Amino acid sequence: MKKKISTIFIISSMLTTVGFLMDGDPKEPSMTMRFTEYFAMLSILFLLITTFYFTTNSLAKKLQKIRN
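Now predict its structure.
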């Protein structure tokens, strides 16, 4: 479980970094705002990926039990 969550965190941080670097909007002059935007994007991606992964995993296990 811990390994799955850390893997999801690494994936979401890579996606966030790529998205943050490819963003074409002008950057805020404030470093505090940049860090806030980065960690907000990281949190949102982490929660979305975690929710999607564990929901589909749980659903697949329940369907497997029904089949057997």
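The longest helix spans residues 31-67.
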